[in-house]
Amino acid sequence: MTRQIVSVVGGKDVPSAGAYQSTNPARTGQVVADVGLADAGAFADACRTAKEAQREWAKVPPPVRGRVIASIGRLVEANAESLAKLVTEEIGKPYAEALGEVREIVDTCDFFLGEGRRLYGQTVPSEMPDKNLFTFRTPVGVAAVITAGNFPVAVPSWYLVPALLCGNAVVWKPAEYAAASAHAMYQLFVAAGLPDGVLNIVFADGDQTFEGLERALGEGTVHKVGFTGSSEVGRRVGELTGRHLQSACLELGGKNPMVIMPDADLDLAVEGALFAGFGTAGQRCTSLGTVIAHESVHAEFVERFARAVREARIGDPTQDVLAGPLLDQKFADRYEEYLTWIQPHHRVVPGEVGRITPDNPRGDFTGDGGLYYHPVVVDGVRATDRLFLEETFGPIVGVTGFQTFDEAVELANLPGYGLSSSIYTTDPKHAFRFREGVSAGMVSVNNSTSGAEAHLPFGGNGKSGNGSRQSGMWVLDQFTRWQAMNWDHSGRLQKAQMDVVDITPDLDFRL
């Protein structure tokens, strides 16, 4: 039976102003959910509702809010298989990866439940006698969170869990093509004991969301915006929040490099490149963009990499496969455009390109009517090529070469993104020099460009973000503001910098 899903604000269903069908990309005729879309007015109303609810939620002691987060984690854990199966059904993510994604929510809850007892401030010494100085973390207010659908439950948890723990209310706008997964996650969060209005979910298209967000910012009912998506849309969100004197938390795209040094373990590098480039069909913000291989190992690496890609299993995401289909038709259309960027000076390996169909099969696999595409490795990419400079969201990896270490670092930074990066080497000097030189917010040594842990900062620079970080204790700075307090118990007015205790040195003293 097809799921019927609508927005929920203040615990109540919101009337729909439009409609959307979420379909299974592995079987494109199968409808997963009929989604009622809200309009800009409903989004703005949700922000007003959240502002009212946030006042009381902020009064709940942080350790008690931490217990709610703990309950969310236990509920997600108890429903992990069902939620993972829904993710696989709705976006075509292989089940093993989907189950790992759900586990990321649990890990995030496990980390942040303790932060309810560690929202520490400080006691600071004053330059005045009989005066104490304090600092406190206070909630920002209402957070508007807009997320993509390639990680429909894990990445949203990086925003929702710390935002709620810190005493904020949230209006969450998930991707429409992953609406069923998002709605199921919303239900688990609410079942943990969140009061009505503290977490609201709004399904809307991009234009209505942007208009509603602009209204809410103008009315002062949104105090923080979190956005995961493309660099192009991230710029618009950053511009909008900047006009209202806010800084958004932006987690954007990537063109993530992997450097292969002459001393690299090539088998390990191939394994890392295969997972980074083609896991989730290359549809991660941390997916491998370009392999930068030293000239002495370039040819051998490409040969081994092409063999691994040729042997990798692509197909039904409910089975043991490296990758399933692309997420949605719009991503398939965009990916086909990326394939037009392949130039005559490129060498395509293993060879097959395009959608997997009975006329263009992958071995015995003919595509089953889903949005399946051949994984592609493009050797001979140049630093001036679009394939080198621009993000390609899908199963395509470029390969280029280098002669010197400094050249490799320069190539790694050249596209202007700065999310994730990787280097394969057995030389600690090169590992640390790469860390110093690369612009990425995350660096892996002898590991893939993909992968995150709940207690490490996640985020990028340049086209990949504005330096904000998710996960770990670092994200607390996104959802709290520092408040300073001074308490003078001297019984008289003391004026800082005017009434400081004067200790006069003898500056003419000589030994």
UniProtKB/TrEMBL annotation:
The keyword Metal-binding does not apply. The active site is at residue 251. GO terms for molecular function: aldehyde dehydrogenase (NAD+) activity. Keywords: NAD, Oxidoreductase. Its EC number is 1.2.1.3. SUPFAM superfamilies: ALDH-like. The keyword Protein biosynthesis does not apply. InterPro entries: Ald_DH/histidinol_DH, Ald_DH_C, Ald_DH_CS_GLU, Ald_DH_N, Aldehyde_DH_dom, ALDH7A1-like. Residues 19-484 form the Aldehyde dehydrogenase domain. Homotetramer. Belongs to the aldehyde dehydrogenase family. This is aldehyde dehydrogenase (NAD(+)). It comes from Nonomuraea cavernae. The lineage of its organism: Bacteria, Bacillati, Actinomycetota, Actinomycetes, Streptosporangiales.
